[in-house]
Amino acid sequence: MLPRPWSNITRNLFTPSLSRNHENPLGLPLNNARVPPQIPRRGPISGGLPPKRKIPNVKHTVLVSSCKGGVGKSTIATNLAVSLSLLPQRLRVGILDLDVFGPSIPTLMGLKNVEEPGLTQGQSSPSGALIPITNHGIPTMSMAYLLPPAPQSSSSSSSKSDSEPPTNEDTPVVWRGLMVQKAVQQLLFQTDWSAAQTASSGLDVLVVDLPPGTGDIPLSVGQLVDVDSTIIITTSDILSLSDVRRGVAMFRKLEMPLTGLVINNSYFICPNCTERHYLFGGNPNDEQNMFAKGVQAMGMGGDKIVGELPLVVDVGRGGEKGIPYALSGRGDARHDAASKIWQEGMKTIAERIWGDIQTKTTKV
Length: 364
Prior knowledge:
By secondary structure, this protein is an alpha/beta fold. The protein has a single domain (59-363), classed as Rossmann fold, CATH 3.40.50. 31% of the residues lie in helices and 12% in strands. It has eleven helices and eight strands. Strands 3-4-2-5-1-6-7-8 form an eight-stranded mixed beta sheet, sandwiched between helices. The chain is globular, with a radius of gyration of 21 Å.
C-alpha cells in the first residue's frame, strides 16, 4: 500500500475557510509534469481558451449528462462502464465522478467508506497523481474518496441503533465556483489511470459522470477536454425534457459530439403481461405524443435515441448494494421480460457508443 502523507492536509481543506488555497483545492503535491490546463480570465491580455486535450492515459472520453437531477444518470453511467468493458473488444474502462456536490459512484460501485486514494511515486509516471480505486474490474475516481465521513449529529446518535453511520458521501463540499473549477481540473488531469490495478497501460474509454445542469463543471470539461462522445439521460416526461433542451444547446455551443439520448425508466411492463405502460406519459414512438414532438424539435429523435430502458426494480436494488445490474443480471434465467429488455438495451447503448467512437476515429 502506498503511503498517504497528504491525508490530513487534504481533509483540512474541506472545512469552510477563507484562507484556503484555491489553486490546489485537493492538496496534491506540486508537480510541474502534471499541471492542469488553466481557463484564462477574460480581458485584453488573455489569448483565448487553451486547445482541448486528451485526459492523460485515456484514449477516449465519454460524457454522461442528465441536465436534470433524479433521472438515473449515475446509475446509467456505472452500468454503461460495465457494459463497455463486457463488449467482445474487452475494453479497459474507468469511471470519473465529477458530480462534486453529490457524488454517487462510490455507492453504486460498492466503494463506500474506502480509504482515500494513494499517490503515484514517480517510477514509471510523474509522482503526485491520484491512483484510481478499483472494484468489479472498473477503476474509479470520485471527490467522495477525498472526503472524511460526516460527523454524526447528537440527534442521529440517539435514534435507532440500526441506522447506517454517516459516510464520506454525506460530507458536504462547501465551495464556491473557483474552488470547484480547480478541483475538477485536478480530477481530470491529475489522476493517473495507468496506475489502476486493471489498466496498467491506461484506459480505452473513460466514462465521466457529470453533475446535473449547465454550470461550471460541464462548461470546464467542454472547454478543456477532447471529448469523443456525449449521451444525455432523461425520463419520458416534458419537465425533464425542458432541461435536456438547455443541455443539448450547451453541448452544441461548445461543439461537443452528441451521440444521442437515453430515455431511462421510459415504461413499465407488469409481470403478468407484455404491454408497455408509459408511466410518465411520454411515448417516444408515438409521433402525436408531446414528449416525442419535443424530442424531434430539438433534433434528438430517430436514430439519436440510442436507448429506451424500462423501469426495472432490480436496477435500483443493484445500485444500493453496489453491484451494477449490467454485471449482476447477466445470464440470470429468472429474468422477466422487462429485465431482458433492459439488459439488451444497455448492451446496445454500449455498442452504439463504441461504434460511434470508432467511426469518428477512422475518419480522422
